Amino acid sequence: MMKKRYVIGMFIGSVLFCSCAKDSALGPDVALERDYVLPQGKSPQADGRIVDLYEKYGSYFLYDFTLLDLNWNQVANSTSYKLALGDPAYAGDMLDLLGEVWLQFYPEEFLKKNLPYRVFMADTIYQVLSYMDRPIECAKTGDNSLAFGYMNADTKKKTAAEKLALKNTVQMLFFDLLQVRKAVSIPEEFYKISDYSTKASSDPNDDDYARKRGFVANPQYGNEWCTYVNWQTKTLLQSDDLTYFLASILCRTSTQWASDLTYPLVKEKYDILVNHFKKEYNIDLAKIGNKTY
User: Fold this and answer.
1) Hey, what's the signal peptide range on this chain (predicted)?
2) Looking at 28-37, 75-84, 117-126, 164-173, which range is the least confident one?
3) How many angstroms separate the CA atoms of 81 and 23, rounded?
């Protein structure tokens, strides 16, 4: 028995010795190269600002990139994109627009932790579909990137309606990224208020009416998502409830919320989310929703 322990001890010792020998032979640390070289050098008006953004947040704001960059994803993604690169002369205007519709609503410390690694700025982003290539204003192109198709001579001429549409889109996509990356928490109390076991009704006179159950409509299309159960679980999904509730807060003004907030369960869930994000992250969700141009 002692001999067995001795042999085992000698084996472990030799492994440790070899490991140390290998460690000592590794040599000096090698500095890792950046994924992209900044400044990109084609926009005197914006290059300095882009370098500042990288140094402050660790995020690349790019106007010179490839289609492979745009479509790269760490996980499987069924959506692919095409693009038309923008004129770098308008990169500064694009940064101004992104500050106005996106970045201004978040504390510095939150952005340092959670800004996407890559922010693509192009003239046009096209979502590739079977029947057409559809131009889109903003897209979540990877697990840690957002792409914008607004960078051109018209960037400074965007109407109030166009700015509002972009603000609503980027806020929803940004929060989608935050949830995928588990960068923000959601109080369990939010999920305890509504019954997810059966579908709701779109009829205000029905006892199962969506608002009476604490559900709000999909703000992007206005449809009542909760009138159908998930085909796999045969229930309503808590994740869908959170997605559409958050999107509604981010995209709708207090005036637009007034009717829905007369329903007690909706009001309770609204207050839980708004208060939680103010307390935990110093983010005013209602302020984002109330912003118009």
Assistant:
1) 1-21
2) 28-37
3) 45
The residue-averaged pLDDT of 249-267 equals: 98
Q: What is the pLDDT of residue 193?
A: 98
46 closest CA partner among 61, 57, 58, 35: 61
Q: Determine how many CB atoms are found less than 10 A away from the CB of residue 260.
A: 18
pLDDT of residue 194: 98
What average pLDDT does the chain have?
Answer: 89
d(CA 100, CA 30): 40
- Rounded CA separation 270/264 (Å): 10
Cis peptide before 116 (omega within 30 of 0): no
Residue type, 161: A
Which residues, 6+ apart, have CB-to-CB distance to 54 below 8 Å?
A: 38, 60, 61
Contact 119, 59 (CB under 8 A): yes
Return the sign of the alpha-carbon dihedral for residues 211, 213, 216, 218. negative
d(CA 210, CA 260) in angstroms, rounded, equals: 10
Q: What number of CA atoms fall less than 13 Å from residue 180's CA on the CB side?
A: 14
Distance separating the N- and C-terminal Cα atoms of the chain: 82
